[in-house]
Amino acid sequence: MRAPESFTSFTKSLRGRSSDHHHGSMSVAFVNVLEVTAIIVAGTMTGNEIAVAVFFHPQINRLPDAVHAPVARSLARALGAAMPFWYALTFLLTVAVAFVARSSWTTPRWLGLSSATLIACMIIYSVLLAVPINNQVARWQPDSLPKNWRELRARWDFLHQVRVVVLIAALILLVWSCVGAAA
Predict the structure, then answer these.
(1) How many C-beta neighbours within 10 Å does residue 156 have?
(2) For 22-26, 29-33, 69-73, which range has the lowest pLDDT when averaged over its residues?
(3) pTM for the model
(4) Coil, strand, or helix at residue 2?
(5) What are the pLDDT digits (tens) for 101-133?
(6) Nearest-CA neighbor of 134 among 163, 95, 91?
(7) Which residues contact 86 (CB under 8 A, 6 or more apart)?
């Protein structure tokens, strides 16, 4: 039984690009799974951060103080527990795309490395600037809020918006790296 012509063309194209797309014995399928996984993890993380910036926080900021502070505290705790792992996984997968899925210093590797560098910068930026505020918010007691709590929330929102812009750029570079390697 003979394979359909389109399938044969597809497999030939994969074999043709395989020398630039992965290291010697690494299968094209593994590289494709790595790329898709990296894009999904980075995309969902970036999407989550966009949702916090565009939807959650603007709505929470409109709530009365008695509701706003407990909701902010709850979100700070939940996201503060999950995000470090999500950022680390995104960074590791992006580095893997740059170095494991690419065997030479071509544009796709540089794009992947640029994405990983931006994510690493956002990890450091977050730890130094946003996380300390988030940790304060997570410890707030609604009956004894600091006098500057609204200013702290506004500062965190600004820092987060900067982070979102950089994460979008990192995601674009990651996708471009994967698509560019396939071209």
Answers:
(1) 21
(2) 22-26
(3) 0.84
(4) coil
(5) 887 888 999 999 999 999 999 999 999 999 999
(6) 163
(7) 41, 45, 48
Residue type for position 125: Y
- Asked if residue 45 lies in contact with residue 90, where contact means CB atoms within 8 angstroms, the answer is yes
The gap from C-alpha 62 to its chain's centroid, in whole angstroms, comes to 28
- Tokens 């170095």 belong to 99
Residues in the chain: 183
- Residue whose tokens read 């494709």: 32
Please tell me the distance from the alpha carbon of residue 56 to that of residue 47, in angstroms, as a whole number. Answer: 12
HSE value, Cβ hemisphere, 13 Å, CA-based, for 177 = 36
Q: How far apart are CA 13 and CA 173, in angstroms?
A: 24
Residue 66 identity: A
Nearest to 23 by CA among 112, 110, 102, 135: 102
- Each as own residue / partner, the long-range contacts of residues 20-24 (CB below 8 Å, 24 or more positions apart, any chain) are 20/103, 20/104, 20/106, 20/181, 21/101, 21/102, 21/103, 21/181, 21/182, 22/100, 22/101, 22/102, 22/103, 23/100, 23/103, 24/103
In the chain, which ranges are continuous DSSP H helix?
A: 5-21, 28-51, 57-61, 65-99, 107-125, 131-139, 149-182
116 phi/psi in degrees, rounded to 5: -60, -40
Q: Are 122 and 166 in contact (CB under 8 A)?
A: yes
Q: At what angle do helices 107-125 and 149-182 cross, to 10 degrees?
A: 170
